[in-house]
Write a structure and sequence with these properties.
It catalyses: 5-O-(1-carboxyvinyl)-3-phosphoshikimate = chorismate + phosphate. The protein is of the alpha+beta class and about 400 residues long. The protein has twelve helices and 17 strands.
């Protein structure tokens, strides 16, 4: 499976084209929109989320509620484009008018300056419109298709917030369904209700200070068989693919599986997961410190992966920058107003991880249509259960 996205932040629409989905996957726009609505929510979002209503239109590849096996096109129309027609329209404009509207002050922490230098743009809006985190709406749309596929195979994905600024959620023993329910009930998408008000407080304080804060989000994937991915080549290791996908999310600066970086300060006996066997469920691990992976392949335990999101770099107390035309120092321009987008980022990460897992399954098993895929996965689960 693969997908491409297209579109600019204030353009006419975001488009996602997905290729490789099995035929006969049941799907509806309402199921996809549930994911998109969750991405737009979360405590700490700015005024723009009240303008943008990201609801998807299925333009191709689905008929009467089922995928056809042909490419699926998803479109997210920008209702606010009418107010940006003069700035973002495709028709040529008067050069003098264009010069007056140019963005020439790159914002620290954004792609503005690097992208302008790479593509030789003298108007940095040509960069910031595509590098905007709004592109993640198109990725969530793709991931929502992947989540639906996984659910049909008995695989569940949950994303939630573990930390905002210096407030950490407790490491609670919950089922994946309990994690999903608690996160949905929380304004900050956390599974620890005892820390919700503290998380909201630090978000409010950052907004009051004209600043921004980041945090840590976690995704759990439950119901997987062992052996997804491969050890035979570096680019076939599934944990490597997931790590790359997480790091490709806007503002993400770190990723870890299981105990992650804390493994540097633990001994081997405290790090690895002992193997056990049960006649009914087959091989399993007594612990899950490695987050569901060994040798680039799933172990059959839940995947547990964390991502670190930096504070949003656009501030109401802007950092200093340099005008690319005059080379004079200026305060960086403001393009958005979120003080914290960590809750929304947990939804994005949930969907990019779901995509990589679903793509690995489709790559590994016959998958022209859903019943074929289900049968192949069922046979595989039985074979590895009695392996040896």
């Amino acid at each position: 499976m693969r997908y491409l996205t297209a579109g600019e932040s204030h353009g006419k629409q975001l488009t996602t084209i997905i290729e490789g989905l099995p035929a006969q996957l049941p799907i509806s726009a309402d199921e996809l929109n549930d994911s998109l609505i969750r991405r737009q929510g979360g405590y700490g979002r700015g005024r723009r989320m009240k303008i943008e209503k990201d609801l998807v239109s299925i333009m191709s590849g689905v008929r009467h509620g089922y995928t056809l096996g042909s490419p699926v096109t998803l479109a997210l129309t920008n209702d606010d484009f009418k107010n940006w027609q003069d700035i973002m329209g495709e028709e040529p404009v008067d050069p003098e008018k264009h010069i007056r509207r140019q963005v020439t002050k790159p914002r620290p922490g954004h792609a503005d300056l690097n992208g302008g230098m790479k593509y030789n743009h003298d108007d940095l809006r040509n960069v910031l419109e595509r590098s905007s985190a709004r592109e993640t709406a198109a990725r969530v749309a793709a991931g929502s298709m992947a989540k639906k596929l996984l659910s049909e195979l008995g695989i569940t994905v949950a994303g939630y917030v573990r930390q905002i600024y210096d407030v950490q959620a407790a490491d609670l023993e919950l089922t994946i369904d309990e994690k999903i329910e608690r996160a949905r009930q929380s304004e900050v998408n956390t599974i620890d209700p005892n820390q919700e008000e503290s998380m909201k407080h630090v978000i409010d304080q950052a907004k009051q200070d004209g600043d921004s804060i980041g945090g840590v989000v976690e995704v759990t994937v439950d119901g997987l068989p062992p052996g997804l991915g491969s050890y035979v080549q570096y680019d076939r290791k599934l944990d490597g693919k997931i790590a790359a996908a997480v790091m490709s999310i806007n503002a993400f600066k770190g990723v870890e599986f299981g105990i992650g970086f804390s493994a540097a300060s633990t001994r081997g006996s405290e790090t690895h997961d002992e193997i056990a066997y049960d006649e009914h469920k087959g091989y399993y691990r007594k612990t899950n410190r490695l987050g569901g992976f060994e040798g680039g392949m799933t172990t059959g335990m839940p995947i547990v992966v964390k991502g670190v999101m930096k504070p949003i770099p656009t501030l109401y107390k802007p950092l200093e920058s340099i005008d690319i035309h005059s080379k004079e120092p200026f305060k960086a321009s403001i393009e958005r107003s979120d003080s914290c987008a960590v809750p929304a980022a947990s939804v994005v990460m949930e969907h990019v991880v779901a995509w990589e897992v679903a793509a690995a399954i489709v790559d590994q098993f016959p998958s022209d249509y859903m019943e074929q895929l289900k049968a192949a996965l069922t046979d595989y689960r039985e074979r590895v259960r009695t392996f040896g």
